[in-house]
Design a protein that fits this description.
The chain has 301 residues and is mainly alpha-helical. The chain has helices spanning 3-29, 32-40, 68-84, 86-97, 103-139, 152-169, 172-181, 187-192, 194-208, 214-245, 279-282; strands at 60-62, 149-151, 285-286, 289-290, 293-294, 297-298. It contains 11 helices and 6 strands. Helix 1 (3-29) packs antiparallel against helix 4 and helix 5 crosses helix 6 (152-169).
């Protein structure tokens, strides 16, 4: 198609994706109370005053200005609309890109999406599961006689950040596997990085998680390290399969492959044997001179 037709198709597919997000967002407004309750569940809320008697290990959720209830509700519904309608707008994006891909590229894309979605959902579920523990650890630092009043918009930002960080970090092993399938990195090289990767993952877990407690760091770094070693194992097996299929696949462009000097029979031509050789050759000498023989031929022949 000409450029104008591509732009027109892109406009139509973007419009379909935005329409799906808008419809789901409007539908989420009717369930906004349930969504707010779901997001507030990880927060240990105080049931006796402001929590002075429990040492501040709980909090009271509050709205800090007049527009906060409205803006927070709109934000939650919009986030629900984007997440729930993701199959629709992701399909529209894929339908626009797919015609320009080769068959094998589309195959790899299917495998990538099939693995990326469960990994992201697993990271999001883990973040939501450990969030109450992290919040209790942070709120437990509050001195005696003090109270915690948390704005709802801050809680929403905290939860979304945790989910995105955990879900995105769980995609790292998948990226390494795709690089190995593309031939950019070998499993042996990935295995040689394990000390630096483990150290870097734990540092990343300490820096990336919004909490300052070790629970969030270990919960993020531990599964990523396990997934990394699984990616290394898959890459080693894939390299072994690639070597069996093509022994010269891992050679550099300027590296010569080993030569096989064993002669092979040619179709239609019977190999010359020692019995059919000349008498002088059969005796192993030519004019009284010892001759090196190879498959019935002397060195001169």
């Amino acid at each position: 198609m000409p450029l104008v037709e591509h732009l027109r198709e892109l406009r139509n597919r973007l419009a379909k994706g935005m329409l799906a997000i808008t419809v789901v967002t409007i539908a989420a407004v009717f369930y906004s109370q349930q969504l707010m309750t779901f997001l507030m569940d990880p927060v240990p809320r105080c049931t006796d005053g402001l929590g002075e008697s429990t040492g501040g290990a709980c909090a009271v959720i509050a709205y800090t200005d007049l527009l906060s209830p409205f803006t927070t509700t709109v934000k939650v519904c919009l986030m629900a609309g984007i997440v729930i309608s993701s199959p629709v707008w992701l399909y529209q994006l894929w339908a626009f890109v797919a015609p320009g891909l080769h068959k094998n590229e589309r195959k790899y894309t299917y495998w990538f999406v099939a693995a990326a979605v469960p990994l992201f959902l697993g990271g999001a579920w883990l973040a939501y599961t450990i969030m109450p523990i992290s919040m209790r650890v942070l709120l437990g630092i509050t001195p005696e006689g003090s109270a915690n009043i948390l704005p709802m918009d801050k809680i929403l930002d905290f939860i979304v950040r945790m989910i995105l960080i955990f879900g995105g970090a769980f995609e790292l092993p998948l990226v390494l596997v795709m690089l190995n399938l593309a031939g950019a990195v070998t499993g042996r090289r990935m295995a040689g990085w394990w000390r630096g990767v483990v150290m870097g993952v734990f540092v990343f877990g300490a820096v990336a998680t919004p909490t300052t407690d070790p629970v969030g760091m270990i919960a993020l770094a531990g599964p990523i390290v396990v997934l990394y070693f699984m990616a290394v194992g898959f890459s080693l097996l894939n390299d072994k399969r690639r070597r069996r299929a093509d022994p010269d696949a891992e050679l550099d462009d300027d590296e010569a492959s080993p030569l096989d000097l064993t002669p092979e029979p040619v179709d239609g031509i019977e190999p010359v044997t020692a019995a059919r050789a000349l008498p002088q050759q059969a005796s192993g000498t030519v004019d009284g001179t010892p001759s090196t023989r190879y498959n019935g031929y002397d060195d001169v022949t």
